[in-house]
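Most newcomers find our protein records easier to grasp once they have seen one. A learned vocabulary of local backbone shapes supplies the integers on the structure line. Here is such a record, shown just as it appears in the course material:
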Amino acid sequence: MSRTFVYARVSTADQTTENQVLEVSGAGFQVESHRVVSECVSGSVPASERAGFRKLLDRLEQGDVLIVTKLDRLGRNAMDVRQTVEKLAETGVRVHCLALGGIDLTSPAGKMTMGVITAVAEFERDLIIERTQAGLARAKAEGKTLGRKPALTDEQKGIARQRRDQGVTVSEIARDLGTTRQTVLRALV
């Protein structure tokens, strides 16, 4: 008798997998709560390196069904997603993706669909990275300062050095400048 599992993943701690579980339930799948594996880890981390997914792999048996709401829950890298689905198929586990109409990704049609979609997703991610890098390079070429605003102005750094030379402690300098000891110590090097 086949069992049904859900793999739900979010990328940041302020997100929740609850909507993914509700979506699976709303699609008509009855999944026992102990067969829902939820974790918070970036999709860029290969599935085989995620603690929750590794535990799930240990539990899955031939004939089981694994449901994900979207393909990117398995990963963002086309090669990783394909390898994960192929590994599951080799053990006799069917993988269903709700966003693709509940298609079985281990079937021939599912494999083709998954290949096209993951390739497009990876291409889009690469384009975003390329545009971001181009924007940063342009800003740098225009002389814009990238990153955080410095904690202390050049004038405050000068005051800190002058006060240190006068024998004032780092703690006192920090208090006077309204900052932390670590900030003052960084400014003094």
